[in-house]
Amino acid sequence: MSRHGCRHLCDLKASKGTESFKIIHKYFMSCSSAQARRRQARNCVCHTCKCWTPRLHSCLSCVFFGCFGSKHIHEHAKSKRHLLAVDLTYGSVYCFSCKDYVYDEEFDDIVKKGRDVASLAKGIQMFSVWEPSLSEVDLLKKNPKRRKVSGNSTIGLRGLINLGNTCFMNCIVQALTHTPLLRDYFLSDKHICQMAKDSQRCLVCEMSRLFQEFYCGIRTPHTPYRLLHLVWTHARHLAGYEQQDAHEFLIATLDVLHQHCKGNNGLSDKNPHHCNCIIDQIFTGGLQSDVTCKQCRFLKSYLDGTDKFEDPTSLTHCLKRFTRPEHLGSSAKIKCSKCHSYQESTKQLTMKKLPLVACFHLKRFEHSTGYHKKIGTYVSFPDELDMTPFMSSSRNHNNGYSEQVIQESASSLSSENKYSLYAVVNHRGTADSGHYTCFIRQHKDAWFRCEDHLINKATIEDVLRSDGYLLFYHKQILSYE
Question: Which of the following is catalytic: 82, 317, 435, 443?
Fold first, then answer.
């Protein structure tokens, strides 16, 4: 395959350059402002039937938009002898003489740069605004009633058929498909499959198809049989129709997605041990473990990746207990590099780096030999969470956290460590048998309760009163390196 298209495209570039493609891409494809998107929605219609279709093409030789499916762009190409048109959704160039899409490296670079600029322009906004992504705008045009995402819009909401005790999977799928940055990634076609010869085995490709299914405007419940098959293939311990744990499914899914995504991004230049794939960028944080000598108060710091804490009566209480200093005892003395002798010490875990999405797992099931018990303790959680008091930078070496840090954090209105709740997975029943449901935040103040194929409107009070099992929080402010 040529990197510079067919001969017809080469002739066009030789006579007119790439200016026509740049203009079409700038004003009708990579619209990064609300005003540009409104202009795009108003003008991007077929000049023959006056309708917007998913496969609208623009002529590269003149100002004409035409439907590809209804062949209005074909009729224009034949009558005007204009042989080339660009797909306004994907930026692909179609040659009517070659009767196929042709690849051009120069045009592809223009599309990629446009996507990066549009993503940056959108990403620096506050998370709480909940504006639609560029891909969502394209999809919304299919239904004129949904061109503007208003408070009563249901775009992106779709039930999932239970394939036999698969409610645990359905809840996690709902949470992932409503994770804003993950949604933007998959709806922007940024995944480059590393399993080209066997793409049917790629979980990332299936997730991409799943996002398209959720945001295509169809309301009938979706049957995720392909996703279930891939999960069984890549996570053998979850195979079968027995009820599985939603948290275990989430960890397994993120792990497989990470394995299939990391080939696209590789390792970070700054840290060769850190992956830059979309899963790590969104869900990975870092803990710091500080061990302090009780004799001389000498501090040693270690990075730690564990995530285990007890379950008191509120999420904030859980975090306080998780990050409080722990006396290691006389049986676990360490050799202090300052005292040069074995001394008793304390250990304290704090957050070194916060993830963009923080998922909290509240331990609800207790298992021992021949004994299974569900922990029904109610644990309250907020709709907005500030993690500043639990950061390593907020740690007071003598007394844990200073009251000043906690008070300043509570009164701060612009803390970069603040999160908004956007999904909650619940479990009802016993440890041996039960059912998973979830709450999803659709817009700023719009909540819905998802139970397999059933979706009902809910209130924030319904969400906060529920017995949470998995809590999903998204950073309110995103920063870029």
Answer: 435
